[in-house]
Amino acid sequence: MTDVIGAAAAADFGAFPPHERARALVAVADALDAAADELIPVAQAETGLAEGRLRGELKRTTVQLRLFASVAAAGEFLDVRIDDADPDFVLGPRPDLRRYRVPLGPVLNFAASNFPFAFSVLGGDTASALAAGCPVVVKAHPGHPKLSDRTAEIARAAIASTGLPADALTVIHGQEEGVAALRDPRITAAAFTGSVAGGRALARIAAEREHPIPFYGELGSINPVVVTPAALAERADQIAAGFATSVTSSAGQLCTKPGLLFVPTAEPASAHAAGSSVGAGGFAGLAAGAFEAAGPHRLLHPGIAEGYARRRDEVLGTSGVTVVVAGEVADLDASPTLVETDLATLIEHRDTLLDEAFGPLSVVVRYEPGEALAAELAGLVEGSLAAGVHTGEGEDSPWLRDLVALLSDRSGRLLFNGWPTGVAVTPAQQHGGPWPATTNPTTTSVGTAAIDRFLRPVTYQDCPPELLPEPLRDDNPWGVPQHRSRAGESAHWGEI
């Protein structure tokens, strides 16, 4: 294997002005859009995902590249801070201090299987690292190797067309190669999307290196959603349909799929008056038809099929669990499974019911209206990428506020009257959460804040002007935002 890490390190991508890196990202986005008719069939053949889903994902990928191009061009991410020398500083003379953020260096990105475009070779981890000025080595996922190589070829040519080094993006294959790259001293950070077991193992390697590096892992997530009695009374049919769509889309192979849905046990007295169609079969009965109608869908690869089948058997074999829609797994094809239980059973069998089922399966959990649900969930629910609450119109109560506070403590994104699948690519997005959703709850892998993972701050003190980096110079040749603290200001701090 050629020394791709050495090539990436030699690319010195961070030495180029941010607006030039931005042009390269736009060129990559344009090239991917132009190659859609070539890439989509390759992705279909390797993943089994539908053409419409893949075209939407490719568009998401190119939009994300353009978003980070805008972030790079604006230069705000450099967070330039300049403190003018101040002989009258309130704590004694202050030197000239100039701080900004620099790229860490070569980043290793472990691509995911379930998003062959958006979380793969040119997904958010790659886009944000390149925008930061870091060369990227992608460890391709074995579920779509041909697509990975062709995507990289197109991107490298596009980068080179702008005059920047193509080796800013390279691809490697194989588990051993990925581990070796993670141990390579030239790699300065790593990003990963995958299983808890895989993420733990890689995080340990990153931490045990002679010089440990940051490891940003996105791991397991059950994404709990709670339906209040008022919401069930108002729109049970609508909630059931949305739930089924969220669980069965892409065969449930989405990291934000709702794995647990909490619904009240008793139908509210006002339900019939409000037009709800909750009947003797309860909420799970409402959702059953939509689950059954979804039909079989190919899973991404044998490893996922085996893991899902094993997890499904564990859930179906748990005492106190009622099968609403059995579904099945045949080779790589899986049809949706829906089960129902109560809160007491979930508590009793938490060891088997609370793990993520990566596939088209979800658990409806009945709770008693009025009980302290937040207190019960506090001892059950671990960190998730997302959590949700379906509320009635204008609903507010101490019970609901306690629930909202608990779910916001356990998730990176809390949504109301919607479903966690569907992660908008936009500046305010947060795609991360407490363990085991991620290895680092302070960061995100989607949204413009994702760039923060691949930067570190450095301050220049009393540096001669001719030796200052461009962003810190008074003439500001890169034209980036500079936040300046002028002499004399300290005397007025605290004057509010």
Automatic annotation (TrEMBL):
Residues 8-264 form the Aldehyde dehydrogenase domain. InterPro entries: Ald_DH/histidinol_DH, Ald_DH_C, Ald_DH_N, Aldehyde_DH_dom, Aldehyde_DH_Superfamily, ALDH_KGSADH. It comes from the Bacteria. Residues 470-496 are annotated as: Disordered. Keywords: Oxidoreductase. One of its GO terms (molecular function) is oxidoreductase activity, acting on the aldehyde or oxo group of donors, NAD or NADP as acceptor. Pfam families: Aldedh (PF00171). The keyword Plastid does not apply. This is NADP-dependent aldehyde dehydrogenase. It comes from Paractinoplanes atraurantiacus.
